[in-house]
Specification:
2 domains; Nitrilase/N-carbamoyl-D-aminoacid amidohydrolase; 5-stranded mixed beta sheet
Amino acid sequence: MKSFFRYFSTREGFIAILCYVVTAGFSTFAFAPFSQSYLVWIAPLGLFYIEKKYRGEWKKLIWHGFGFALVFYSFSFHWIYHMVTVFGGFPWFLAGPIFLISAIILNFKFPVFLVSFSFLVKKVGKFFPWLAGAAVLFSEFFTPQVFPWYWGNVVGENHILSQNAEYVSAYGLSVLLFLFSYFLFQSLKPKRWKKVWNYLFTTGKDKTRKRKIVFGLGSVFLVFFGFWTSGAYLFYKWENVKPLGTKEVLIIQPNAPLEFRDGRSVAEEINLLMERIDNLAIQGAGKDKIDLIVLPESGVPFFSTHETEETKATRLYWDRFESMMNILALRHKANVFYNELDVDFKDGIRTRDNLRSYNSSALIGPNADRKGSYQKVYLLIFGEYMPFEWMYSLSGQTGRFESGKSLSLIPYMETAMSSATPLSPLHWFDTANFSPKAVKDYYGKEAISEKQAGSFLPLICYEVIIPEFVRTFQGDPDFIVNVTNDKWYGNSVETYQHHTLGRMRAIEFRKWIVRSTNSGTSVFTDHLGRNIKDEFTPLDSSAFLRGTVSVIPGYETFYRRYGNLLLWLFLTVSGSFFVFYVWKFR
């Protein structure tokens, strides 16, 4: 420990800390919500400096990798501490160590990159910028990341370069970043450029060496130019595509409470919540046609509208919740997509140990008939489940959720214009006297013909940031709906980062994204990855956001069909070339 503090008190240690800060700081400010994307090209320089200084010293590179991980985590993911204390319910003396341990484990990509890149450079022994791209791709593919911050997501803040995600996702943009950034790092010495000039333009020099220099420099610029050209072409192509139609979507952001450990009245708070949802729907819908109303994850927490023996036995089913959802659908003649809890018992055995909970979202059509539901598949560790049974005793807040099985799209129905009616519209307070069936009977004469209009791809919370998972859904959706509850992370940058990481799915699928959050930030994103009007709902507030979503013609993009094929091919070719080069010339 003394040697640790002694090292960082030296000039060498100070420079190392400066490298950590350069990488973490420039990455953070290049990303949402700051979005100064040009800074990302500078961010890897700190990594390259440390690798060069300690090349081949594997233990030191690993320790410095942990240093990058801790500083990077503190800059970009400081909100994890808030999540652990609020979402997980851990006391501060446990939350601190959890934060530090997760910083190392979930950012193992830093030591892996430093060691793998140093190994490659040491073996090749020459400037070869492709090695940086191969090393970063290797580190991103083979290290654990609960909140995957691929470097390419930061590059994707540039609307032109981001279009290439249609082929290579964010991973491919990571390769571009490290390829060009390493070239910049090697270009910082003027003497090196003087040597290059002499070799290229002085007669009598080795022609073979000239060809290698031309190939090395040309390949970097050719790839960079290729990404820009491809991005510009794709941007122009998709900006001018004619949509098949449009849908009017209303997002309701209710700002529902997380929990009631502060002594508030549950009944009073839920009553106020339902009144907010009722009023926001009226304000947002007006008298215009609405095709879909979307409520976020935990928009109405703790309850279910799914009336089954299991939900009634566990007291999750609440008839007034179902009545309110029916009112929204029938009053506005719209589809309603909302989040709820659902349960069943394993093998039908009704014991506490066999109880299985699901984070579920359901859709009811404009006649208030249940049309489909989706149970979250990709669960969040330390929030929805614990990796080990004994850990549940540490946190009473952590759920015991099961993964859903279905990867089907959610169908939605044709809707009708809201029209003048002799009926007085029902509201939340009416649910005290109107059962779900009574609500449907009340609006029975205004029922519209049932016809499926299309389907959308449902994603709950962090599922949207995992490209490999999203492409496993079957069918061709009209658009993507992501419902989430970012309130667990407080008034932080997390909600912007969460959305920006998920925004790339719009480009990979060429579909619009409807993002509905509990407390901000809700937004519409088009198939080019652009946030419509940059109109985000404010944090820690109730609000509504209405938008016209374009239905882009069904088109199976390269990434959607083949996934990471090009990236695996790049790693395979790079590895084969490396083995051949070392065997042939070393």
